[in-house]
Every structure is written in C-alpha cells, then in structure tokens.
Design goal:
Elements (H helix, E strand, L loop, with lengths): L6 E3 L2 E3 L22 E4 L2 E4 L11 H19 L4 H12 L3 E2 L3 E3 L2 E7 L7 E5 L7 E5 L9 E8 L5 E8 L5 E7 L5 E9 L5 E3 L3 E6 L17 E6 L8 E5 L6 E7 L5 E8 L2 E8 L8 E4 L7 E7 L2 E6 L7 E6 L8 E4 L5 E8 L2 E8 L2 E8 L4 E5 L6 E2 L11 E8 L2 E9 L4 E7 L9 E9 L5 E9 L10 E4 L14 H8 L3 E5 L9 H5 L7 H16 L8 E6 L1 H12 L6 E5 L18 H4 L6 H10 L13 E7 L8 H13 L6 E6 L10 H19 L6
Helix pairs in contact: 2-10, 5-6
Length: 708
C-alpha cells in the first residue's frame, strides 16, 4: 500500500515511492536476434543473442551504450537518488586502518583518510613510533584506474614487490621498490595473473602468469598454460627462469609459496578444489622441487609452518571439516599424523605463534577462536564480542610476542585487537570511527527448512523495534559456491541500508564452506539445485516470520551469487519484487569457453562434457530458462567492461532475453561500469554512484520511504 509520509534524509525531503505503471513505457534498445543453435547430446538449444558475445562489434557497442543511457535515465529520475548518494558518501567518509605488521626493523600499516580510492601505506621505526608515508597508491594514476593488486616484502624488509592492475583487470604487472630509499628499481614484470610474489632472499621472486596473449584485448579468449617463473632482481623479464608450466588451456593453476623464515619453498599445482605439494630448501638453488603429496582435485593441503623437517599442514583429506597434520620430510612414505583431528565445526583459518596454534572455527557460520599447543592439547580460547567473524591472531614472525586480530559483524564496525601471547590478553588497537550506532539493531540467526529438509541458517539484521507485519523492505543476499564461507561482516553500505529502514538477511547456502566439504559438495555439480532451493527457503522463512513480504523483498548476489539470483528469478519470478545481480554467470551452457571458465568445471560440470552435465546445467541455466510472457520482478543487472573473469556477455545476453520476454511492467535494466573488472578497479566516486543506484532502484521498486 502506498504511504504518503515524508521523511527527511540529509536535508532533502524524500516522498514515498511505489512501483508505478509508467515503467511499462520503457523502450528497450533492440538487440540483434539470430538463429544460432548448438547441439548437445542430441538436444538442440537456441542462442539468439550469440552476437553479443563479440564485445567489440559495432552492434554490441551501440547496444550497450543505449542500454546504459536508458538505465541512467531511469535511475537519475528517482528523486531520492541524490540524497542517498550524499548519505552514503557522508557515512563512508571515516578513517580506515589496517592491521600493523613489520618486516626487519620497520613497522607498516595501511590507512585511508576516508574517501581515498586506495589506502596509503605508512611506515614507522617501532610499533608505536611516528608515521611517515611509504607509498601512496593513489599516485599510480590521476583517475584511479591503476590500482594496487598484490604486494610482498622481502624477509629483511628492504625490498617491496607490488603489482598493479589497470581498469580492474586480472592482468597484473610487478614492480619493485627499495624500502630504504623509497625509489622504484628498474624491474618490470608483465602478464602476471592469479599470482602472489614469493621472495627468495634479496635475489628475486617467484611469480605466476601466462605468456603474452597474441591479442591483449581479446577478453573472451581462453588462456594458455599457467606458468611459474623466477625473476632475478636487476634483470630483464625475458631472462626469467621458467620453473613449471601447466598443460596448455587446462584448468590448472600453479604457484610457489614459502614459510616466513624462507627455509622451505613449495610448488603448488591447484586444480578444482585440491592441490599437490612439492618442496625444496632455499639453499637448493637450481634443484628441482620434490613432490610429497599428489594432485587430487578434491583434496587440498595448506602449509602452516615447520619445526625442523616436521611440516605442519591444514588439509581436508579424510576430514570434510578439516584437520591439522604433521609430515616429516625425511619420511619417504610422507605419512600424515594428526595434530588437531577433525571436529564437529569447520576449521576456517589457522595461525601459529610460538608453540601454539590459533584455530578459527565456524560454528553455525560464525567465528569461534580456540588455542592448542603443537601437540594438539587445548590451552584456552579467545572470547569474542558476539556473533560475528574474527581472524586468528597473527604476526610476521612466529616468535613475536605481540599479534593482531580483527572482529566484525553486520551491525558491529570492524575492531582490531592487539593480542599479547604471553598473558593471553586482548586490548583494542583500533575501533572504526564510522558515524553509525549499532545499538538499535540486532543480528539474529534463524533456520529455514529447504525443499529436502536441510537446515539452512539465515542471519537477519534489523532494528530491535522492527514491526513483525511483513512491511520491512529487506535485502536477501546469497552466494553458495566454491566452498567459500560467507560469514557476518560490517560494511558502510549495509549500515546505510539499515539506517534507511531496511532489514538485511544473508542465507548460508549449500555449496559454500560454512559446514565443511560435505556442505560444499551438497551444492555443486549435480547438486547445484540445492543452492537455489535453500535460497528460496530462506525467503519463505522471512515471509513466514513476518520479517518482510514478497512485495518488499529484494534479492542480491554477485559472481556465483549472480548465477544464484538469475536462477531463482527464472524459477520463482513471484518470490520478490526486485533483484539486483552483479557480474554473474547466466549462460551455463557456454561459461567454460570464456576466459578462465574451464577452471570452474569441477564446480559446475560442463554441458559439452557429458549428457548428465548438460541435463543438470540446462535445467537451471538462467539464460536458457527465460520464458516469454512471464511477469519478472524489477531487475538491475550489473557488469563491467573490464571483467576478464566473468565475461560481460553473460549479462548482455541475460538482459536482452529478459527484456524480450518481460510481460509485466517492472523494469529490466542493464548497468555496465567502465574501467572496472571483477569487483576490482572501482574508485570511491564510482562506488558511491553504484550504491546510490542500487538503493534508489530498491526505493522505487519496493515502494518505501527511506529514513536516516
């Protein structure tokens, strides 16, 4: 029901808004339709918008430009948008401080004064000494298009390797800076991708990437072999030594990591959700890496640290919730011995300080911190402020007495704690100074029953005095994939939504890692439909408990979460009034032919691999399940022109199909950001505009008065 109550937001009077019939007047730019078809195991599938896969074709360029123009016209006409942008910029303008760390005799910390696009790296001569700027990454480009991607200090703290990315692309270029002088060295390493840098003393560093592509602008082209090189400082990249190359066009990634003391180096080959390990000592300069653990796409090993030849590893081998094991490199059988056996909760992160492991477990998708010694005996725990997400205490050197860890939750701004390992006490080092009072809000966890009866946790953050009458505009977010755990965290954007009068819900879906590998396996490959069923069950829980109603619900997700939203919209178009989906996968019959799509086959399968994979994917692929004559909810489909991970054509084709099929009055809008990659490359101004568009779209299509 329309409400005629006015609210004051940042000095502007915002009138009530509700979905209106004039949305049916939208004239969508015509997209070229063709008669392209593909045949999979005897089944013919039409792909009428195949032409939109050619991003540089004049027809595609003109269509995208027209779609962006239509979207801008629609969003800019929403009266509340400017006030929302102003409110977000004001709220976001607070100092942001990273966790202090040190290399050699110098301490470092990242700081952002409030609205800087990138944080500035400061240095000091002691833990609490006066600070000076070491590197302002905002100086990399005037318009913010060149940004820091990865960084690594040499062990003695005298060298700083950093990679830059342009326009949010996954392609990176490595540079090296002398820490004492602050000057860049001549080293320049291009075409790195999915790669940290691992220093080998001051001599140089290992990095991973690909051979220079024949056409650097061809984002769609599958990549060749992922490779590891060693770059010797002071030499040209053309002289870099090839360490290992994966098979061409495979779904394998390779890289080198090391313990902090640089005693052992590990060559990792990663495929699917597993990896192999090979090792060498730092003084074995030119010898080959020696394999100790084989490659299994479902089993991973993560080195933690060592005592002599005893290597501590985290693994999911015969432990879906993970365990910590020890392996003696002198043992030719490479037998794994338990230190911390698998427990009932998922082991999410591990650090080691002195002779203690600090263990971060997930209990119903929120953090619990426990401490054991190197023999696995319990020696205590760290109490957290509430139901949220915490890192484990960590330091650069294992023997450091002082370590830092962080805690956050949906209505609890980030806090960094300074932890004394000798006394076991925590003191606040930094508390976010954002102008947000979390006391009127509560985060509660409820449980939905999915279609097959599975118990699905749902975090719901809302005002304590929220009326339970179904009237609260609510965002339901989900991801559910790749074994990634989605746990409570604070963001200024969520805080603004709460201040506007909304509720924010996050569903803990199968396919994620919150309950270990069993939970992940229950939401991938042939089980992927469980993820969508879980999300629908979470929405129905919100309706049943009178948190919100379908007329006041918006669903949201990005990347794999964009696939989630697309699948739910096409399966249950009646579930919500609005959907905002960001840089998602929608053509699940062809995802593997673009960029690094082959690497996702262990998660999704592939339509051209087997008849069963085809049947599974065709049943839920959003693009192929758009049906003409359907009343779809209002949709804002977002992508970016430099997204070389999830190819933008997914969004182009999905938007064109929905616009063609839409029988209702709700808008189907495509928003294409320029000079942005896969959630990378945004400037502060662009982030403010993006949030303003998101929330203005919801204000109009959920029909409510935002309050602050």
């Amino acid at each position: 029901m329309r409400q005629n109550v006015a609210a004051v937001v940042c000095g502007a009077v915002l009138m009530a808004t509700s979905p209106s019939s004039d949305q049916s007047a939208l004239q969508y730019p015509p997209a070229q339709r063709g008669d392209v078809t593909d045949t999979y195991f005897g089944k013919t599938v039409a792909d009428p918008y195949r032409a939109l896969e050619n991003l540089d074709a004049p027809g595609t360029v003109a269509w995208v430009r027209a779609e962006n123009s239509l979207t801008r016209e629609y969003l800019d006409a929403i009266p509340q948008r400017i006030a929302i942008a102003t409110a977000y910029r004001t709220l976001y303008n607070y100092p942001k401080v990273g966790t202090p760390f040190h290399y050699g005799s110098r301490w470092f910390v990242y700081r952002n004064s409030g609205l800087q696009t990138q944080s500035v790296l400061y240095t000091r001569d002691s833990e609490f000494g006066p600070e000076r700027v070491f590197f302002d990454f905002n100086s990399l480009s005037r318009n913010g298009s060149v940004q820091l991607a990865e960084s690594a200090f040499s062990r003695d703290g005298t060298l700083f390797a950093y990679s830059t990315s342009t326009g949010g692309s996954d392609w990176e270029t490595w540079h090296v800076k002398s820490v004492p002088s602050g000057r860049d060295l001549p080293d320049h390493v291009a075409w790195a991708k999915y790669s940290p840098a691992t220093w080998l003393g001051p001599r140089g560093f290992y990095y991973s990437g690909y051979d220079k592509p024949p056409n650097a602008n061809a984002m769609a082209a599958p990549l060749g072999a992922h490779k590891v090189w060693f770059h010797q400082l002071g030499t040209s990249q053309q002289h870099d030594r090839l360490v290992y190359a994966a098979a061409p066009h495979s779904d394998e990634f390779v890289g080198v990591t090391a313990f902090q003391d640089e005693s052992y180096y590990f060559l990792e080959r990663a495929k699917g959700h597993g990896n192999s390990l090979a090792w060498k000592r730092s003084d074995d300069r030119n010898s080959a890496f020696r394999q100790i653990l084989p490659l299994d796409p479902n089993v991973f090993y993560s080195p933690i640290d060592h005592d002599g030849s005893s290597i501590y590893l985290e693994t999911n081998l015969r432990a879906p919730n993970l365990r910590i094991v020890v392996l003696d490199l002198r043992d030719p059988t490479h037998t794994l011995h338990d230190i911390v056996p698998e427990g009932p909760d998922k082991l999410e992160n591990v650090s080691i300080l002195g002779d203690h492991f600090y263990l971060g477990y997930l209990h119903d998708a929120h953090s619990v911190l426990r401490i054991v010694d190197v023999r696995g005996r319990s020696v205590g725990a760290i109490q957290l402020p509430g139901v949220g997400t915490a890192s484990t205490p960590d330091a650069i050197r294992r023997r450091d007495r002082i370590a830092y860890y962080t805690y956050t939750s949906y209505a609890y701004p980030n806090v960094t704690f300074r932890y004394d390992t000798a006394t076991g006490t925590s003191t606040i080092y930094h508390r976010s100074a954002i102008e947000f009072d979390g006391s009127p809000y509560v985060t509660e966890q409820r449980f939905a029953a999915s279609k097959d009866g599975a118990r699905i946790p749902v975090f719901i953050t809302h005002r304590i005095d929220m009326p339970l009458d179904g009237s609260t505009p609510t965002i339901l977010y989900g991801y559910g994939g790749f074994g990634i755990s989605w746990t409570p965290s604070f963001s200024a954007a969520t805080a603004l939504w709460l201040k506007m009068g909304g509720a924010y819900a996050v569903a803990t879906l199968r396919g994620g890692g919150e309950y270990g590998e069993t939970w992940h396996d229950a939401g991938r490959l042939a089980n992927k439909q469980h993820v969508f069923d879980d999300f629908i069950a979470a929405a129905e829980l919100l309706f049943h408990d009178r948190i919100t109603s379908s007329a006041k619900l918006a669903i949201n997700g990005g990347s794999n979460g964009g696939l989630l939203v697309g699948a739910v919209v096409t399966q249950r178009p009646d579930l919500c009034a609005a959907a905002v989906t960001e840089q998602g996968l929608y053509d699940m019959l062809r995802f593997q032919v673009f960029t690094i799509g082959k690497a996702w086959i262990p998660e999704y399968g592939a339509a051209d691999r087997s008849a069963s994979d085809f049947a599974t994917l065709a049943a839920y692929s959003p693009l192929q399940n758009v049906k003409e004559g359907t009343n779809y909810p209002a949709m804002l489909i977002e992508t970016a022109d430099h997204d070389d991970r999830v190819y933008p054509a997914h969004s182009f084709k999905f938007a064109a199909a929905l616009q063609h099929a839409q029988a209702g009055a709700a808008p189907i809008l495509l928003r294409v950001e320029s000079n942005e990659g896969h959630f990378a490359g945004l400037t502060t101004d662009k982030e403010v505009a993006q949030i303003a568009d998101f929330y203005a779209f919801l204000v109009r299509n959920l029909g409510f008065n935002p309050t602050l």
